Amino acid sequence: MGDMKNKAEELKGKAKEKVGDWTDNESMQAEGMADQAKAKATQAGEDARDAAEETKDAVRDAFNR
User: Fold this and answer.
1) Which residue among 35, 53, 57, 65 is the one 20 to 30 A from 2 at the CA level?
2) Distance of CA 48 to CAs 16, 24, 43, 54, 61, Å?
3) What are the boundaries of each domain within the chain?
């Protein structure tokens, strides 16, 4: 679910950036880029958490053999 929410946020940011480009609105461009960066950072954090969980499970399974 987080993946979809993050992707939606990223797409919203891209749309804001494009509208800012078309209207020459630097504030909207910056806001769009910030939205994209936030979504990507959130996704990276979630990916790292998932990887850590998988590693923990693999180590636990290796010691329980």
Assistant:
1) 57
2) 28, 37, 9, 10, 20
3) 2-63
pTM, whole model, 2 decimals? 0.78
**What length is written for the chain?**
65
Rounded-to-integer distance, Cα 17 and Cα 30, Å:
7
Q: Please give the structure tokens belonging to residue 35.
A: 């939205």
Cβ-Cβ contacts under 8 Å for 46 (sequence gap 6 or more): 2, 3, 6
Which two three-digit tokens encode residue 30? 């910056």
